[in-house]
Amino acid sequence: MVQSPALSRALSAWVRKIWREVAAFGVVGAVAFFVETATFNLLILGAPSRSDGILSSAPVLASVVATFLAMVASWFGNRYWTYRDRRSAVDRREIGWFVAVNLAGMAVTAVPVFVSHQLLGLDTPLSDNTARLMGWAGATLLRFAAYRNLVFVSAGKDFAPVPSPLSTWTTALSRAWRSGALWPWCLGAVAALCSLAVNAVFHPGYLSEDSTDQLRQALGQRPMTDWHPPVLALLWRILIHTTGAISAMAALQSAVLWASLWVLARLVWKKTGSRGLSLVMLAVGLTPHVLTFTGVVWKDVHMAYALLAALAVALSARELPPGRAGSRWALLVLGVLLLAYAVLVRKNGLPAVVPVFVLLVLAVWPSPGRRRWLAATGLLVLTTAVAGVGVSQATEPVATRQYAQIPLDDLTHVLSPAQIRAAAERAGASSDFRDRLVTATVACERRKIPADVYFNCYPRNRSLGVTELSRDADVLVRMWTREMPRHWRGYVAYRGRVFAKLLFQGNLAFYDGSVTKLDALRGAPVNESLKFTVQSYVTGLAHDVPMLFQGWFWLAVSLVFTARRRWAGPYATELRLLGASSALYILAYLPTAPQSNFRYVYWPALAGTIGLVTVLVGFLARRRAGSGRLTPGAGPAAGERPAVPTGAADAGPHEDVTVAS
Fold this sequence. Notes:
The protein is mainly alpha-helical.
């Protein structure tokens, strides 16, 4: 109570002393606003004597030009008038801070509009202007505080800034930035903005035929089946009941991806002290072959992001100081839950899960021992089994025996129509099923359909729905086990052709969500302009760098990761296991691939990109460590080993390398 009058007097004195700054800042802001508005309208509408402006067909470019000119006017006005008493030589620090603050101001202005439109569903002129006004007010406060305390502070020796209640906070903020303590939070802010932006682009989520069917199941419009993983439909149903929005699934996908990338980028910063390298890791989410499916609700995407999140958990556990048994078990359980979900959401995901599980255990315990291996393996098996039973009990899916598609493909492409009929008779097939098999064989041969017979060639009985194959699945299995050993050459040749097409003729680089025509989605249509922008970016890179969307390239990358025993940097073991996960997942499609589709190699593409960035980080880390350039404040945290200046290539799985930025 005694200090309250003194604090009040200090605040009053502070306000009286900076009134000129506030007034000048307001005038400069008004001028910048006028410059931006006038320039934009001039570029779009043109002079009174013209019918249109020079950029009338490019409003986005006109907006960028107008914003840039407004920033220039703001910089000149504030530097040479508002803060003229602080002026000294122009330096890169001042320019960098000025640009960063204005970009942050643009983001602050856009966030309320995004929340109003995308999250609250408000689209009236009143709500738009209210949201923009809130964003403008927040951005103005941010710019004033930052200009005064961070940007225009390069004064001479005789300058003494007016003390304020913000001075202590801004001083601490500046020190935290210089020491690097603030950078992980900056990475988090960038990741959050990227997640929001990507979610806005793909809103309400692009749907394939598979995901449309699962959404109908989640909404209760169709009975649950096991044709597609019921765990995904169950999770979607929970999200819809919790949030009231079907777009929550796409938002969850985006959040998991960018949260995982933030964890990995933070670890890169911790290991190298390089802001640039940490941003490179974060930028993986914006690469065309990763961004393309970020907003598409697919089981392949869910499996890939669950494995990526498990990798982030494992590398976080690797950084724990000695001891911390409780934290290690907690991270192990979290990683196991993610791996169990990956198995349940993709039936053939087990080959990719096993190496990541090994990576997780070795990260939690550098030398696990037999008992810990058994405990961790038992935990994974038990969690997967219990979760599978729980999902089945909660959804009661209709059994479809989808696996019957594989012997159907093999039989109709390896045997002739006469051999198909004879084999079906020996296996006890009904006359109707024999005729359908022969018809499918002839149709695929005539139309040169390489795979996916059930959907492309088989004369389906629509009245049976997804249960049709389950009626004759036993017959197909008996036919396959009897005929394939006798026609093994044809089987090997056929499977080799299908697998080669998957590797070298991958398609579907971009999925535009054109199936999104449900009644539930009519109130939230896909933004065609944003879709066209992303599609142009992805397909353009797919044309210029096609190997990014082809399985052979990522198989080669994964095999190199697996075969090379030592890698520069501290993550040699993790790279080998990550490569093994990708390679096993691709090779598992050799006997089962139904068609050529990039989504089947989406996890190897994501894991391979993460691995390539990790190799780059390790190479630069060893190079800079050898030069002896260490970053102040980027040394080992409590409980870590000291930085290893040389010999990073020989570092063990838990040795740290800390180098300069």
